[in-house]
Specification:
CATH architecture of the largest domain: 2-Layer Sandwich
Bound molecules: 4-diphosphocytidyl-2-C-methyl-D-erythritol, adenosine-5'-triphosphate
CATH class of the largest domain: Alpha Beta
Catalytic activity: 4-CDP-2-C-methyl-D-erythritol + ATP = 4-CDP-2-C-methyl-D-erythritol 2-phosphate + ADP + H(+)
Structural class: alpha+beta
Number of domains: 2
Organism: Nonomuraea deserti
Pathway: Isoprenoid biosynthesis; isopentenyl diphosphate biosynthesis via DXP pathway; isopentenyl diphosphate from 1-deoxy-D-xylulose 5-phosphate: step 3/6
InterPro entries: GHMP_kinase_C_dom, GHMP_kinase_C_sf, GHMP_kinase_N_dom, IspE, Ribosomal_Su5_D2-typ_SF, Ribsml_uS5_D2-typ_fold_subgr
Enzyme class: transferase
Distance between the termini: 13 Å
Shape: globular
Radius of gyration: 19 Å
Length: 300
């Protein structure tokens, strides 16, 4: 096979509960991931060396050197296989960069699946999941997709069946937020308040809403412990969230570490109207309707 293409989704966190800071610099989480229909595509072509190039909306914001997570993923896979394989990786980028939607993680997951196929390794999914966890906390979920609860630093996943399709609108912001700085801001705010940080717990009402496909209940139970930190670093996100609520969103939340804002809609038609409302009033320069859950990294 000389060329393989894999499609990988973005994510939103419908619950993100952040526990105390661990000694390794990470936080224990209860992280309910939900994969949504904004996709990157990663194509791997036969080559001597491992290289990457990026096309699409956000290509100028993505590194094409060794810092690219897709390159790191391909290298980690080649190392696991014990051979000096090569691949030209082409990323078609649609997921916002540094937007809290796991775009880099998606490309890493895409590169793992594509290179496993291109190089004929035939590694089982469990092996790819282990390599993924070493690459980043969100990478295993980008492989898995659907809806899942992540514990540990987010890499230990249990799949969650959902009772229906949920319709979302994502309001994209200018410029990204670094995930590490948002966690650091969360720690700083917690230190300043001196309140004890509780151990994260799964929200039973949220589980029920996901299981029954009840968008109204899901909207009422969305939660993100990183939201206050993201708003502290980007106060202008507050009015964006409020504008979504004014346009009838069932729930409005910062996606992961932000700055993308996620709005839950009643149905596909409402999502389209909500997106139009957010852009025509200037509350967001770009608002993208999407639905979830969708599959994780998939060979095309
Ligand atoms: C905010 C989320 O996107 C929610 O899904 C993730 O928790 C972040 O996952 P990610 O981007 O894959 O993050 P990683 O590459 O693993 O870690 C980047 C940095 O985020 C912070 N980090 C990440 C995950 C975690 N459970 N605790 C943390 O404190 C650490 O400072 C870490 O150095
Ligand atoms: N393939 C890639 N796509 C996007 N960014 C990448 C990639 N590889 C490395 N990066 C770097 O990683 C940084 C974070 O990008 P990413 O889009 O993954 O953030 P994010 O969506 O906020 O992540 P998360 O939601 O997992 O916290 C970017 O600013 C960029 O410098």
């Amino acid at each position: 096979m000389s060329s393989v293409t894999v499609r990988v989704p973005a994510k939103v966190n419908v619950q993100l509960s952040v526990g105390p800071l661990r000694e390794d610099g990470f936080h224990d989480l209860v992280n309910v991931f939900h994969a949504v229909s904004i996709f990157d595509e990663v194509t791997a072509k036969e080559s001597e060396a491992i290289t990457v190039s990026v096309s699409g909306k956000w290509s100028n914001q993505v590194p094409v050197d060794d810092g690219n997570l897709a390159i790191k993923a391909a290298r980690a896979l080649a190392k696991h296989a014990g051979r000096g394989y090569g691949a030209d990786l082409l990323i078609q980028k649609d997921i916002p960069v540094a937007g809290g939607m796991a775009g880099g993680s998606a490309d890493a997951a895409g590169a793992l699946v594509a290179c496993n196929e291109l190089w004929g390794l035939g590694l089982p999914f469990e092996d790819l999941m282990e390599i993924a966890a070493d690459l980043g906390s969100d990478v295993p979920f980008s492989l898995l997709g659907g809806t899942a609860v992540g514990t540990g630093r987010g890499e230990q996943l249990s799949e969650l069946p959902t009772g229906g399709v949920f319709h979302w609108v994502f309001a994209l912001a200018d410029g990204g937020l670094s995930t590490a700085s948002v966690y650091a801001e969360c720690d700083r705010l917690r230190e300043a308040s001196a309140a004890e940080v509780p151990w994260p717990q799964l929200d039973d009402s949220l589980m029920e809403a996901l299981g029954t496909g009840d968008a109204y209940a899901l909207g009422a139970h969305l939660s993100n412990d990183l939201q206050e930190a993201a708003l502290s670093l980007r106060p202008e996100l507050g009015p964006t969230l409020e504008a979504g609520r004014q346009h009838g969103a069932l729930g409005a939340i910062v996606s992961g570490s932000g700055p993308t804002c996620a709005f839950l809609a009643i149905d596909a038609l409402h999502a389209r109207d909500l997106a139009r409302g957010l852009t025509t009033t200037g509350a967001a320069h770009t608002a993208v309707p999407a639905h979830g859950p969708v599959a994780g990294a998939t060979l095309l």
